[in-house]
Write a structure and sequence with these properties.
- The complex is a heterodimer of chains A (448) and B (314).
- By secondary structure, chain A is an alpha+beta fold.
- Chain A has helices at 42-45, 55-58, 66-81, 87-119, 130-136, 138-159, 179-206, 212-217, 259-262, 299-305, 312-325, 334-354, 406-409, 411-425, 433-445; strands at 3-7, 17-23, 29-36, 168-169, 172-173, 224-229, 241-245, 251-254, 263-266, 275-278, 295-296, 373-381, 384-392, 398-404.
- Chain A is globular, with a radius of gyration of 21 Å.
- The two termini of chain A are 33 Å apart.
- Chain B folds into 2 domains: 3-174, NADH:ubiquinone oxidoreductase-like, 20kDa subunit (Rossmann fold); 183-304, no CATH class.
- Chain B has helices spanning 15-21, 26-30, 74-86, 95-99, 111-120, 163-174, 249-252, 270-280, 291-295, and strands at residues 3-9, 34-39, 62-68, 71-73, 87-93, 139-144, 154-156, 202-203, 283-284.
- Chain B is globular, with a radius of gyration of 21 Å.
- Classes of the chains: A alpha+beta (448), B alpha/beta (314).
């Protein structure tokens, strides 16, 4: 008799989801679904709000990456009011974003993902977690807690809040960086950079080699990618052009306001999360053998679409990565590797910006005037491209909001990876908790 | 001995859980005292069994239950009721759990209007029927605070709550202190800015330019935002965002308070009190655009935000 395995909730991710795996009479996988079970409705309840209140409202979409939403929103509000923030303001926005990136990536690699690799994918769930890590590798765990705290303190000391910031505003940012504050932040940024260097070395020596077979088999799919690059093709988090890569590696660049020509969203009856797809590639098809329209975002996607990294240490790592896995690299678990290359770029960029003489400039905001307009603001959140599209009326009150955010882009790909992982690991009705955890490991790669 | 704890997020953003991790170095000593029998963010315990064969939600027994997020779906409501049954003490963590939070602004619309927008009025989305599946839980009539559904023992407000208070409340509970709350003070009571009890008068200005201050100077040289003629909700907001040693978070950024710690005391009416506070410094509070939503941004549960009858157009 056919049966359904329900993994509920999916754990060590953020948000509410459930995986349902349907087995046939012979115990083989016939269907899988990842059900996203919550919906908040930001697109509706932002209607009527003053434009200047948006960046500090929509950051609440995500408590792990509030800075990304805060900045995408700020850029959309710049667009609504038709202003360009002064260069120092842009540098301060980028500084905050890169510091927040460092904390985010450390959190995911060590606390959410590492239990599967350090404690082991098949270990009992009661030890396969952060407390287990504390016992197995206390020195590293303490260091991780300390580093995350350091990042939060850097954000809070200057911008008041690490979570749900208020610092970025239409036309720029709310305060310049005092020299004394810069001098306080610089050594901390260097400490984060040292830890970033340690992290990628640690992973390359102790984690990836041990799991190479798993990397080559678990959750593997061949689909396209979306990310942001600068004009020179370097990987960029804050501003640039959007770039889509087909599964075969061919590229197409487009500007933020062309997103509607390139991305459509399908609604499945079985999930609150929509399924964005690459519109120009044909009708969305979620078949594992011949997927159409499916693309991925987040670090592996960015690393694939970028011609190069923007900083020297990260670039050296990318070259080593590409020598081993090519471009595009399709193995899903390589998200973990790509995440650490980006960690390095974020830490390098933070140090670089703090050494930039313009960072303490005092011209940080262009005053804005309420008027009707539209703005499409994009940044790269840790989990993928954020698209915030706002329209407002003559009073500067929001009339329309459309959002396509980080993990939503990965919805189709996550469903495919789960399907592949389940088919690969569950055969003839044989499975245990370790095997089901491997299915979740495919999801966790995407850090949803 | 470690105490069993069950933690979960409901209609939440995970910021509260990140705030737990932001406790910093003391977390290393605190974590081993807590035995998380369920925490979706960090531990792989499953409500439907580790082999996914269960048919009903099985919440483990615990001494402490911690819930972040408000209640948005029937399944979240059911889970919350189960956690209440199984946990001796229940903590509402964060302003969504305490008051409904930012997502409770959806209470200004009928549920169907929100679904209409999300699934049929988005320019990138193929217009589609609402998702309808046993695995897609139905929305509750409103986005509610946790204490609208079950009894709560300790409320830790804030969006997010300050790590100092999370650590204090949990450590206290481990030592047998079964109640915890912040003193009834306003953000202004903890704010070091200069106040002269007057402003330039006139309409409340919109936050379209930065406030007046010298970049190198501290908050003790910064003039109160209300007295500069703008809206800051410090006067009607519970103090605590600064933690034990800091300064009010939004003011540090030279940005206004929007009330994320909720009202100073239960039953207070921040909207009314805020209008009075602005009047007292000579400003005309009626000039504030969208004041109902701004002043109830974090507290839209408990019936504070609801669908209003449609006004005849001008």
């Amino acid at each position: 008799m056919s049966k359904v395995i329900n993994i509920q909730p999916v754990t060590r991710i953020e948000g509410h989801s459930k995986v349902a795996i349907t087995l046939d009479d012979a115990g083989n996988v016939v269907d899988t679904k990842v059900h996203v079970q919550n919906l908040r409705g930001f697109e509706k309840f932002c209607e009527g709000r003053p434009v200047e209140e948006m960046p500090r409202t929509v950051c609440h979409i995500c408590g792990i990456c509030p800075w990304a939403h805060h900045l995408a929103s700020s850029k959309a509000t710049d667009g609504c009011f038709g202003v360009t923030p002064p260069p120092t303001a842009v540098k301060l926005r980028r500084l905050m974003q890169n510091i927040a990136y460092v904390s985010d990536k450390i959190l995911h690699f060590y606390f959410l993902a590492a239990p599967d690799f350090v404690i082991g994918p098949d270990a009992d769930y009661s030890v396969r977690n952060v407390v287990g890590i504390l016992q197995a590798a206390p020195d590293i765990a303490k260091k991780v807690v300390h580093m995350r705290h350091l990042g939060a303190q850097m954000l809070e000391g200057f911008a008041g809040r690490a979570i749900h910031p208020t610092f970025s505003v239409p036309g720029g940012v709310s305060r310049p960086l005092p020299e004394a504050e810069r001098q306080k932040m610089l050594p901390s940024a260097k400490e984060l950079l040292e830890f970033a260097k340690f992290s990628i070395k640690f992973a390359k020596e102790n984690v990836f080699p041990k799991y190479m077979e798993t990397i080559k088999s678990l959750g593997v799919i061949k689909v396209g990618y979306l990310g942001t690059v600068r004009d020179d093709g370097a990987l960029e988090f804050y501003d640039g052009k959007l770039r889509m890569m087909k599964p075969d590696g061919s590229l197409e660049d487009f500007t933020y306001d062309q997103y509607l020509d390139n991305i459509g969203e399908w609604v499945a009856p079985w999930s609150y999360q929509k399924f964005p797809y690459a519109k120009k590639w044909g009708k969305l098809n979620l078949s594992l053998e011949n997927p159409v329209g499916v693309y991925r975002t987040n670090c592996l996607a960015r690393i694939n679409v970028a011609d190069k990294m923007a900083t020297p240490l990260a670039q050296a790592e990318l070259e080593e990565f590409r020598a081993a896995f090519g471009r595009p690299a399709h193995y899903t678990l390589l998200y973990h590797y790509a995440r650490l290359i980006e960690l390095l770029q974020a830490a390098e960029t933070a140090v670089e910006l703090l050494n930039d003489p313009e960072i303490t400039g005092t011209n940080v905001r262009v005053p804005v005037t309420a008027k009707a307009g539209r703005g499409v603001g994009c940044v790269e959140a840790p989990r993928g491209t954020l698209i915030h599209d706002y329209e407002c009326d003559n009073d500067g009150l929001i009339t329309k909001v459309n959002l396509i955010v980080g993990t939503t882009h990965n919805n189709a790909a996550i469903n495919l990876s789960v399907n592949q992982a389940a088919k690969e690991s569950i055969k003839a009705g044989k499975y245990d908790q370790g095997i089901l955890n491997r299915v979740e490991m495919a999801i966790r790669s995407y850090d949803p | 001995m470690a105490v069993n704890v069950v933690e979960d997020w409901l209609n939440a953003c995970s910021g509260c859980e990140i705030s737990i991790l932001n406790i910093g170095d003391p977390l290393v000593d605190l974590l081993p005292q807590l035995n998380f029998v369920h925490i979706t963010a960090l531990v792989d315990h499953k409500f439907l069994g580790q082999l996914g064969e269960g048919t009903t939600m099985d919440v483990p027994d615990a001494v402490v239950g911690i819930v972040s997020g408000g209640v948005r779906t029937e399944e979240q409501k059911h889970e919350l009721q189960e956690i209440r049954k199984k946990a001796k003490f229940l903590i509402s963590l964060g302003s969504c759990a305490c008051f409904g939070g930012v997502p409770a602004q959806a209470n200004m619309w009928k549920n169907e209007e929100v679904f209409e927008k999300v699934f049929r009025q988005s320019p990138s989305t193929e217009p589609s029927p609402n998702p309808e599946d046993p695995n897609v839980p139905k929305w509750t009539p409103t986005c509610a605070a946790v204490d609208e559904v079950v009894k709560v023992d300790i409320s830790i407000p804030g969006c997010p709550p300050h790590p100092d208070w999370i650590a204090e409340a949990i450590t206290g509970l481990l030592q047998g202190k079964t109640s915890w709350s912040l003193p009834e003070r306003s953000v202004c009571d903890t704010c070091p800015v200069i106040r002269e009890k007057k402003s330039g008068g006139g309409p409340v200005k919109r936050w379209l330019q930065n406030y007046e201050f010298k970049p190198e100077e501290g908050l003790d040289k910064f003039r109160c935002i209300n007295e500069q003629g703008y809206l800051c909700m410090g006067p009607v907001t519970l103090a605590g965002c600064a933690g034990k040693t800091g300064q009010p978070r939004c003011i540090v950024a030279r940005t206004p308070c929007r009330g994320c710690f909720g009202p100073i005391r239960k039953g207070a009416q921040p909207l009314v009190d805020m209008m009075n506070a602005l009047t007292s410094v000579g400003l005309d509070p009626k000039s504030i655009l969208d004041r109902r939503a701004i002043m109830n941004r974090y507290i839209g549960g408990h019936g504070n935000l609801k669908v209003l009858p449609v006004r005849p157009s001008k």
